[in-house]
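The material for today's practical consists of a large collection of protein records. Backbone structure tokens are a discrete shorthand for how the chain folds in space. An example says more than a description, so a record of this kind follows:
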Amino acid sequence: MVEYDVVIAGAGPSGAAAARGLVNEGFKVLVMEKKKLPRYKMCSGIIFKKSQDITEKHFGKIPDSAYVTPNFLKGVRFWFLDGQCTDWPFSKDGSGAPNVWRSEYDYWLISSSGAEVWDCWCLKGFQDSGSHVTVECYNASDKKTGRITCRYLISAEGSKSVIRAALDPEFEKGVKWFVAYQNYYEGNCDLDPCFYHGFLDSQYGDVYSWFSVKNDLQIFGTAVRKGIKIHTYLDRYTEMLKKRFGLKPRKLVRKAGCLGNDMCSAGRFYLGKGNVLLAGEAAGFLNAFGEGISCALSTGLFAAEAVSRGIKSGDNALAIYTELTKPERRQTAVSWKLGAKIAGRNLMPL
């Protein structure tokens, strides 16, 4: 049986930040990632100012290999029902925000964390005895199984958390789900590639519809409540982009989908239980219009601080984490109120 101070499930920004914080305090940390690294992540890939600051402070300068063309985006351009638009700049000086591939950015983060990383390993189950946590896992590639003991377990799994569902099945029953889907096409479009475009028209989706450019790929998608036929909305949205903005999709390069839930917009955070903490989307942290990197990094670092203090002082790590995340929970709530004001209607997350 392998022993660690902390096991982290998930190698995204929240997992990487938690790992970095704990390794810096001298703890033995294992990160388990169910996919092969570097793994694809459906995301705008915009690194907002808060995320930039945290990244540079704890990891350093984002490598050139993570950037796409255009390297920086000026801001978000919201389009309304009447055809008018409004711009929300990413920076006061016009420098914009880094535009990256999440696969490369995330891989750099976790590789820089200093933790031991196992990719293609899935969490099968766990048992919190009070003094330690026993984790059962298996390798998705060669079907090997393993058992690990640790003092704390951190879920950084994203919105669909196996750990959260096991900790509180009743809570999980109340979670509402949404499906997001997007296409990547070779082609061209008249929309300004230096902006991330959001369309706030409910005929194209339940949340909002989006358009961006990365390395000349035309990327566009939408989101709807789970159970609704998303392609009806996506087809309608695609036709609008063709007619109004000259979208000319040629070759489909990738199509992707993911699940999101309403924990963030409903203010239903789940921070953990016993010696198990949740960070990032697993805990319900996601800002309006789907921005989640900043709160993932922040809560990952908070989880690391709480666990570190819990191990060193014997204090209750979950209580410490609950206190540390108060500002982030308030910020999440404020972002959704602002998002609803911009959209002129209630919003649901990606």
Summary: Residues 293-313 form the longest helix (21 residues).
